[in-house]
């Protein structure tokens, strides 16, 4: 039997950073989610949301799907919706990188761009209005339990397996919060002493994939009790760490990954020993039209 594309979502590599951490008693392990077929960690959630909705009968061919996205979820949804012969409209701010928009369209999705001034919140408002007034259905990644359950079923178990249960700290960027919610739930069931660390931007910093949500837009799936600590990073810190990852570790990733690794290194400075696992969310080729690697 041969594997399909969907069979290759997950089981991504977990690699040790070789230069970033100087303390030999601390291991920094990077989970390379860019190795998913759609190029990001969002393949996991997109597949679980669509497949679970189909299995329940919540959606079927002919259902008009719409989803607000900052990029990676949209690419994953476009890819997987196409495989299931579903039509989907993806809504994102007009300042999103050209590569992201073109990739979604290549997979067959309709892409609608909203004002960059209103950010992803404006995209969410647009999608919600279409759901309320025009009969569309949203998977609602921000409030859909199938988002975080994807990581409970896959990401958490993979990390536990590949560290031999020796993980002491898990560090993750916080966007929709699905990754950190699901992985935290699994790891805490295995060992309640594993520390879960979320990453947020400092005030006035803009880091794609990492958000500090206004209260009215806080994802419904977020449960603050599942995060032990939050570390903030600035836009400049995240950008510089992203470039360092490429130069020093050979890991070509996006800015949210740089932010997560920056937070992991801040954490490492407070420890005498430990095994820190950090999510590398996607690949850097989605940001070449930006000034990130200029």
Share of β-strand residues: 15-25%
Overall shape: globular
Strand order of the largest sheet: 1-2-10-7-8-9
In the CATH hierarchy, the third-tier topology of the largest domain is known as Rossmann fold
Q: What is the CATH C-level name of the largest domain? A: Alpha Beta
Radius of gyration: 18 Å
What distance lies between the first and last C-alpha atoms, to the nearest angstrom? Answer: 45 Å
H/E series: EEHEHEHEHEHEHEEHHE
Model regions low in confidence, pLDDT < 50 over at least 5 residues: none
In helices, the fraction of residues equals: 25-40%
Mean pLDDT: 95
Q: CATH architecture of the largest domain, please?
A: 3-Layer(aba) Sandwich
In total, how many beta strands?
10
What is the count of DSSP helices, taking H or I runs of 4+ residues?
8
List the defining traits of the structure above:
P-phosphate_BS, Rossmann fold, alpha/beta, cysteine biosynthesis, 8 helices, pyridoxal phosphate, 294 residues, six-stranded mixed beta sheet, four-stranded parallel beta sheet, 10 strands, CysM, 2 domains, TrpB-like_PALP
């Amino acid at each position: 039997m041969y594997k399909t594309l969907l069979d290759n979502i997950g089981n991504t590599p977990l690699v040790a950073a070789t230069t970033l951490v100087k303390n030999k008693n601390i291991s920094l392990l990077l989970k390379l989610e860019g190795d998913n077929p759609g190029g990001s960690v969002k393949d996991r959630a997109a597949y679980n949301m669509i497949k679970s909705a189909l299995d329940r009968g919540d959606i079927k061919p002919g259902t008009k799907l719409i989803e607000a996205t900052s990029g990676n979820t949209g690419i994953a949804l476009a890819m997987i919706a196409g495989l299931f012969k579903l039509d989907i409209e993806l809504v994102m701010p007009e300042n999103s990188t050209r590569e992201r928009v073109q990739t979604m369209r290549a997979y067959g999705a309709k892409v609608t761009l909203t004002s960059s001034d209103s950010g992803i919140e404006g995209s969410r408002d647009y999608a919600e209005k279409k759901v309320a007034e025009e009969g569309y259905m949203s998977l609602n990644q921000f409030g859909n339990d199938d988002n975080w359950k994807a990581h409970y079923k896959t990401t958490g178990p993979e990390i536990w397996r590949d560290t031999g249960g020796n993980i002491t700290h898990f560090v993750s960027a916080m966007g929709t919060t699905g990754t950190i919610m699901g992985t935290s739930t699994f790891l805490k069931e295995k060992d309640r002493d594993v520390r879960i660390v979320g990453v947020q931007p400092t005030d006035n910093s803009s880091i794609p994939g990492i958000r500090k949500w206004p209260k009215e837009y806080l994802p419904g799936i977020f449960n603050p009790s599942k995060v032990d600590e939050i570390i903030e990073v600035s836009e400049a810190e995240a950008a510089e760490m992203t470039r360092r990852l490429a130069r020093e570790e050979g890991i070509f990733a996006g800015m949210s990954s740089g932010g997560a690794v920056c937070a992991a290194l801040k954490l490492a400075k407070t420890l005498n020993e430990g095994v820190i696992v950090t999510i590398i969310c996607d690949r850097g080729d989605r940001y070449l039209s930006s000034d990130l690697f200029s």
